[in-house]
Amino acid sequence: MRVFCTIITKNYIPYAATLLRSLQRLQPSEQLVALIVDNDGGAPGNPMPGMRYIRMDDIYKVANADLIYANYADKNADALRWGLKPVLLEYLLAEGCEKVIYADCDLFFFSGYEFLFDELNNYSVLLTPGGTTRNPMQHEEEFLSGYKYGQFNAGLVGVNKEAIPMLRWWGRCCAYRVETNFADGLFVDQKYLDAVPVLFPNAGIVRHKGCNVAFWNQHEYNRVQQGKEVLINGEYPVVFIHFTNLYIPELLNGNDPLLYPYYLTFEKTFRESGHSLEEFIKEMPVHHTPGPLVRLKRKLLLRTRIKRWLYRLSQK
Length: 316
Description:
This protein is α/β, with parallel strands linked by helices. The chain has a single domain, classed as Spore Coat Polysaccharide Biosynthesis Protein SpsA, Chain A (Alpha-Beta Complex), CATH 3.90.550. The protein contains 13 helices and 15 strands. The strands form four sheets. A seven-stranded mixed beta sheet has the order 3-2-1-4-7-6-10, sandwiched between helices. Strands 5-15-11 form a three-stranded mixed beta sheet. Strands 12-13-14 form a three-stranded antiparallel beta sheet, with no helix packed on it. Strand 12 and strand 13 form a beta hairpin. Helix 3 packs antiparallel against helix 4, helix 3 runs parallel beside helix 8 and helix 5 runs antiparallel to helix 8. About 0% of the residues have low confidence.
């Protein structure tokens, strides 16, 4: 048995539903477990087919859950959600799942992803690179961001039953501190993942560059139009895009134009939940297509735009 999971507050159920719909359009029988961390006790309503809701009471006895909840529940809702990822993954493994993939609720899948579960036949942990540039001479700020925010993105992490030691270690780290503190080398739950391939040698890395396509990896994950499809670096089909609330305004402003049609699919699917993205993103710009001179200027200033985007991310 295998399953996807995510962690949300109750008001983000439309995002979880959109994630699940993207998965089910590729695999109709796909399932998603959503941990809802709100402590108000209110009922979230009936889940859509394939969705299962669980609450904090269900996972409270898992290692580190009590410490993480005590540290963040009344102080930082974001830290609580981020810190509970290893707890939820361990809970589902203990329930009998053989393979579990955690996915942020703002991911959207466009093409086959079965190979991610296949990788968990060979590795106990599967990590996803952020994909920031490797060239410090051309894109210094973006290059340095990989060492500030981490080489891996915690938006998608896969595990099998052999990953329990790693999950308990990650959980202890999250119970210790989930915060942005560059001086101490910390960035929420994510930066700890840099140590995983060192401490746990059976960790695998997603090498498919169609995974985790996002605004911050435009230099390493070059978008190439081939017919009606966009291929990353002219080779990899887009598997999933990370539609963060900071990325969507960039798309609407024309700053990643080849992926705008993919955004339209995401936005249309989101509306199927009965909600709109405007409810979650303040001051959404109106989409406009820049002219050729503006497009050239934006291409030349991509480094500056990514630098500003990373600054907004750190402030967030």
